[in-house]
Amino acid sequence: MDQNRQGARASYVALAIFVALWVLLPSAVRRLNREAFAEFQAPALHLLGKSRDMATFWEKKSRSTEEMAAAGRDLARINAALEIKLNAMDDVRRENVRLREITRYVVPAEYMSVVARVATRDSSSWWQRIVIRKGRNDGIRPGAPVVFGNNVVGRVTAVHLTTSEVDLVTSPGFRCTAYLEGDEQNRIALVNGVAANSLGTAKSRVSVIPHDYTPPAGQPARVFTTGMGGVFPSRLLLGYLDGGTYSTPVGNFKESLLIPSRDLYNLQEVSVLVPLHQNPGEALMQGDQFQ
Amino acid sequence: MKEPNDMRVLPSTPVGRLRLYGVFAFFLAGFLYVAGGLAYRQLVQAGDLKEQSDTQSQRVVLRPPARGRIYDRNGFALVDSRARWSVKADLAALQKEFRSEYLRLIAAEKARDAVQIDRERLMEVARVRVLQGWLNKVWFVIDETNRSAKLSRPTSKVVPVTAPGERQISLEQLRRHLRERRALPFTLVSDLAFPGANQAQTPEEGSRSVARFIEQFPVEGPIRLESDNIRTYPYGALASHVLGYVKDTDQLPENVNDISDVRIEALQKLHYTGKTGAAGVELTYNHVLSGQTGWELWTKTSSGYNQTRLKHSEAAQGSNVILSLDYRIQQATEAGLAKIKDPQGKLLPAAAVMLDVRTGEILALASQPTFDPNRLADRVSSAYYDEVDKSGAWLNRATQGLYSPGSTFKVITAIAGMRKKVVDWDDVLECGAFFKVGNRDFPEHEPVGFGDVDVDKMLAISCNVWNYQVGLRTGIEALSAEARRFGLDSPLLNTVSDVESGGLPMTELPFAASRGLVVPDREYKLRIKAGPWNDGDTANLSIGQGYLLTTPLHMACFAASLARGETRTTPSIIHDARRDGRHQGAEPIGLSKAQLDAIHGGMVRCVEEGTARVARIPGLPYAGKTGTTEYFQKGEKAHLAWMIGYAPADNPVVAFAVLVEGQLDTNTWGGKTAGPVAKEMLEAWAATADSSSQPKPKADPAR
Predict the structure, then answer these.
(1) How far apart are CA B523 and CA A147, in angstroms?
(2) What is the pLDDT of residue A270?
(3) Which residues in B lie closer than 8 A to residue A291 (C-beta atoms)?
């Protein structure tokens, strides 16, 4: 009996000592510990992502020949359609090159694109953060925009050696400026994620919409990046206005919910646009490490 | 081991028992005292104590509402609100940083063996340093020109000021905030797009600064981005005398939204800074534009910071006001006035008004020099205030400027003469080079005179001698009565009923002239102790000079009344499509058709071949009358240039008046100086009347 009591007391004492040590530890040691845990966790995340890829591979492999033939036909049609678009694009590209030559305009290569597979979604904020299988070793830096095609997925918030965490457009930690389709004056609105209730759907909100803005009739208005903030390239698609705009009770502005441009739940692969030159915001995201 | 019956619970002796009962009684009394006190406080004093507790632990934060917009008659926003993005620091969230910095400063003081440490001051310095560190970070992100600055550490030195804007936090600034607005976040940059009211920054550059902060500054943390409204005047100085401007107010508003269930009178209120109209429509229709103030009820921490929001009510935006102005005519009017300069290139003081003849709605009202209300919308620099003050731009010359109408008054002399039957439309008077009144020769403006002159010719050539003769025959009583009948000395009131104007209450025009108007007569001259009235005074009055004082708006109303064949026009600055064209106090002029035709014909000839021929518009015949009158400036004579009229000649739709204050060294004449402005106004009106050129408004005012 006494031994049990002594054992319990020792456990409590050990816990108290551990807590006290954790509280008193220098922040650098704690940060190192956190980093170490992320690196320790990384192989498991890699394995998880790869096993999901493997499962998808075998699931596709088990399809019948008829299904594969039908998929091949569909693919051929899509390819044909894309080829026509590609030809049209060639004309536009040639015209673009011609105009640049006339104006002697030098296009800066501002971003390096790093393609990354999605390893997992952070269980603590489902829908709003993903982990990708590329990290510092691949040149990814915090703050870099993450896209899929021409669609904004989110933004890198933390970078580890071989993995990176990405805040999705629906994350409360995501914020960027936007142009609204149909606004001829190109006034900037604000897009930011909204904290979801438990079991609720994560959302994004577009606010500070000018009072006299009217969405184009017949289709949801598209919301684009402005390219003015130095993080996102311009004219990337953030999403669509959800049905309309609503006046806020105060202010001459309106707001609306944003339907993200990609189905964030089904993302398998994304591109990270790493800026070739560090912007000051990156330094702030890394803490007080800049001058 | 003792037996139970040996246990002595109570003392066996009476003295012992007495002592014990005494102790019991003492504790019982104490308990009853405490319980009674508790009951008294809980049951009797509960209300008062709760109020005291609330007063000490809660506060009301008032939220000023957005003001309504002001549109022109076509739906163009003349006054709007733009997004103002400000960067604020949450002081409660910075407590740890303040403390760390404070301890660092204390350690530094101890290290240098300071004899006496002023801890209170060190705490203030610590706060300023921490905030300055964050402000440096903000500038580091948004300002590309300042990238080389050393930043980040709260203890770092202050960034040198390299561009206009709010870059340094002073001790006094922080003290004021903690004294007056402790519960609110501390403002680091009040307007990201135009920091430090830097008007030199283009809107595009401003948007870039805002975007850079939004995308690059961390979302989490003690630094917040807030957006609110700031009054903006998209067309700058256009119609600034009509629109007015806003100013800060510390007065608690009366119209606080739905606050009956919160006893705010008992609570500490946050220092309130809202906006209120300071001049023009912004002032007169302030009650319509200002909306309802919202509020939030907060508990506060022992340090005085906000803790939990208990209740709130959103502010409600003010209603919109639709003015009768047409911004295109207004632009043309101001552009026309801006061409009138003295030989040194300085703008001459001037005013111009255009009215809708039928309704009296003001289509354009301009006064020169002017001011930019954008520069008065937030903090007004003393330099700009002095600049406006020195230029005389605060005065709305169209409505507050008091001038002799000069020869434009000859129309009234003619009407008075014909109504008194001392002259008729076809009577011809001999008009020489001068006319003798008493011992004095009153001159004609043409050295050889005009010979035979009738009403029609008199108006075309602006003959003085005809008016001296008719004025003396009519007499001062009839002459001044006629001027009063046209309301030249009556304050102009906006008498649109609140129902007809869409809920706007009946009120004065935001700039009505109500003092100093003079239509002189015998009593007036005696009242000002200038001696008895004489014929010379009547002769002077007959050509619109002497003691007569009125405003350009009054003369425009007179022109509109004349165009309708009536005596009064009620001008309005509020647009209402349902106006029926009735005017308060209006009656027919009381002349025959032939007499009215003679006046009308003379005014048309004035434009076609007379004194206003410089302002002739091919394809748009209209009626006009010029005037050039003398006034004294710094003891020397200078000229006022006038032109009034209405257009088109056959079916008048608009009436106008233009006035220019000539200077000592300028050559200023009615037709030559004021005429071109009238021409530009009418051409602009003609262009807007062509429906094919109507631009689409950017906003629907009804929304």
Answers:
(1) 86
(2) 92
(3) 150-152
